[in-house]
Amino acid sequence: MSSKSLLPADVCCGRSRRTFLSDVGMGFTGLALGAMLADDGVVRAAEPAAGPAAPGGTHFPPRTKSVIWVFLSGGYSHLETFDPKPALNTYAGMTFDKTPFENPINSPLHKKRFRSVASEEIDVRDVYPTIYPMQVGWQKHGQSGIEVTDWWPHLAKQVDDLCLVRNMWTTDNDHAAENQIHTGRHRLDEVQPSVGAWAHYGLGTLNENLPKFVVLGGPTRSDTRQSIDSNYLGPQHSGVPLALDPKNPLPFGQRSAKQTFDEQRNEYELIGRLNELTAVEYPEDQQLRARIRAYELAFRMQAAVPEAVDFSKETEATTKLYGLDKENTKVAGQRLLGARRLVERGVRFVQVFPSSYGVWDSHQKLKDNHTRLCATVDLPVAGLMQDLKQRGLLDQVTVVFCTEFGRTPGLEVRAGGTNGRDHHPNGFTVWLAGAGIKQGHVHGATDELGYNALGDGHYVTDLHATVLRLLGLDNRRLEVPGRKRLDIDHGQAITDIMT
Predict the structure, then answer these.
(1) What is the predicted pLDDT for the residue at 221?
(2) Where in the chain are the domains?
(3) Which of 487, 400, 485, 391 minimizes the C-alpha distance to 436?
(4) Which are the contacts of 341, defined by CB distance < 8 A and separation ≥ 6?
(5) Secondary structure element (H or E) that encloses residue 179, with its range
(6) At residue 96, what are phi and psi to the nearest 5 degrees?
(7) Which residues of the chain have a pLDDT value below 50?
(8) What pLDDT does residue 1 have?
(9) Beta-strand (E) ranges in 234-374?
(10) How far is CA 443 from CA 67, 120, 304, 336, in A?
């Protein structure tokens, strides 16, 4: 075979296809090692108690097979979504110290959790003391009587299947919190692998023709790559971004029109032989081993991935359920329907970004912003819940719905603001549903004004520990030699929300 067949002429960003496969995570962000070598024990820690579960096994009996992690970028307001606070209307226009409640800024919880990157003398981001009223009404829904605002009419009908965690908190008061909720680390600290990467690292595959960790709609931009990255676990465990286009779901995912099936198979076989010869010389080179399997998996994925993201066989009723027939819900609907199809085919962890970067950031015109944005997500995510349930998948799949932080109870006045809320890491709400999760349940609370997560609250890695526990993994045993993590990196599973 000529050198031309080994190094195809078509390139991306100045790189050949082979270079792309090698550099971007050892082949489609390292599918090979994740889907195959990990199951062979190649990257497992030497001591079973200190590393992932045994190949094909778990630390605990798993309660779920797969996770759909839905993330809304920019920080939706917990106060206008899933944690309505009528006291904001009662005391609107007053400062915190004029209400009958403890001033939340003086609470030790505020000092304990607040970590402003800028000097407090220059920019104390979330301390706005004048109360801003709720911008939408709210009602109790379902037999559980859980409060949801009027911007979520479709999801409100599913409330008896949801479990709300209303006492989440984080520390980054800027948009690096998008990475923090996925990695558990503040931007000033050492970077850690994302929750999806830990799931990938710890679990065997359910489908050797598909990646274990898939990303739809993200990462939202280059500086949020950490949200799907694997860091020191190795690029083979990173999330694999897919496009919902069956004709081109992956870069270089289809062979050239000028190349036959047999020609491509022969090309990959020759590359494999050459790499195997190199592997004899460098037997400990994990990246090389990943590259060898990457070509094999990439070859098989050419059939499996396009089928997985092809909606043409879905019924009209299903596509309408997700809002694919409406312009404002189409994008989120496609990504959530894609997530259902992927977990149905054995993908372990699907990370979905139904909205673009930062759009939920409502420093001004919160009412206009959230009215529009909730309408883009409400129907599709309710459709996902209904679809999973009617297919019997809600007993096998766990859904996580989250954001990076909440919004301030006080009115943001920077730059003359009159109708918005700033970033608020001190307390916010996420919800979970599906396999292993209590139904129609509320866990935790913020104070009367929605400022501080009460009690110990739950730092973001508690959410990670919960998801990994549901998958059968002990977060504290997912260790890599030489990479001892802090206690806060592990978190504590929120056992109260689990069945």
Answers:
(1) 94
(2) 1-42+262-310, 54-244+316-497
(3) 400
(4) 308, 309, 311
(5) helix 177-183
(6) -55, -40
(7) 1-50, 54-55, 119-122
(8) 41
(9) 240-242, 349-352
(10) 20, 32, 40, 26
| Cα–Cα distances in angstroms (integers) from residue 149 to residues 196, 359, 403, in the given order | 30, 19, 17
Amino acid code (one letter) for 5 = S
Measure the CA–CA gap between 212 and 85, rounded to whole angstroms: 40
Q: Residue 134 half-sphere exposure, CB side, CA atoms within 13 Å?
A: 23
The amino acid at 131 = I
Using CB atoms within 10 A of its CB, is residue 236 exposed (0-12), middle (13-18) or buried (19+)?
Answer: buried
pLDDT recorded at residue 39: 43
Rg (CA), the chain: 23
List the structure tokens of 375: 């309408």
Tokens standing for 490? 């592990």
How buried is residue 422: exposed, middle or buried, by Cβ count under 10 Å (0-12/13-18/19+)?
A: buried
CATH of region 54-244+316-497: 3.40.720.10
CA–CA gap between residue 127 and residue 130 (Å, rounded): 9
Report pTM: 0.85
User: How crowded is residue 108: how many other Cβ atoms within 10 Å of its Cβ?
Assistant: 8
Q: Which two tokens stand for residue 255?
A: 């062979």
Does residue 33 contact residue 290 with C-beta atoms inside 8 Å? yes
Q: What is the pLDDT of residues 135-146, one digit of tens each?
A: 999 999 999 999
Helix boundaries (H) for 309-356: 316-321, 330-344
How many helices (H) and strands (E) in the chain?
15, 15
Question: What is the pLDDT, as a whole number, of residue 50?
Answer: 40
